[in-house]
Amino acid sequence: MQTKFRRALRQISMETVAVQKTTIVTRTRDHLACELQDETVILHVSKGTYYGLNPTGGALWKYLEEPRTVAELEAFLLERYEVTAQRCSQDVQELLAQLLTEELVELNSQGAVNSQANAG
Question: Which of 56, 47, 50, 49 is nearest to 34 (CA)?
């Protein structure tokens, strides 16, 4: 069963998404997630597709319970793992591209989120 999860995640495009450090990342609502052994399993409800995240990706997913900027995501990982800032940035970009492709997250510019908050 774990193999199916990993295979599904590998099928996601590895193209990177060009985002700014101030871009806000928000998880979409159309999913269910849980921890299963050493990975986080996400079900995209309307697609009926499961995805598996390794422990690092799972930690980032949990941190995204609240909307976060790309800079916050990178700082979160840099505090917890021995990785260079450049490698961390690259890995975050790749994961965001995968999650965005599968409609598990949304990206918003800082100004757009602030405008929506002020309008409400």
Answer: 50
pLDDT digits (tens, 9 = 90+) for 26-61: 999 999 999 998 899 999 999 999 999 999 999 999
Backbone angles phi, psi at 68, to 5 degrees: -135, 150
Question: Percent of the chain beyond pLDDT 90?
Answer: 70
Question: What count of other Cβ atoms lies within 10 Å of the Cβ of residue 81?
Answer: 12
Amino acid at residue number 51: Y
CB 67 within 8 A of CB 26: yes
Residue 16 lies in a domain: yes
Residue positions counted in the chain? 120
Which residues constitute the domain of residue 70?
Answer: 2-103
Q: Is the pLDDT confidence value at 8 over 70? A: no
Per the CB < 8 A criterion, the answer to whether 97 and 15 are in contact is yes
Would residue 32 count as lying in a domain?
yes
Q: What angle do CA 63, 67, 73 make, to 5 degrees?
A: 50
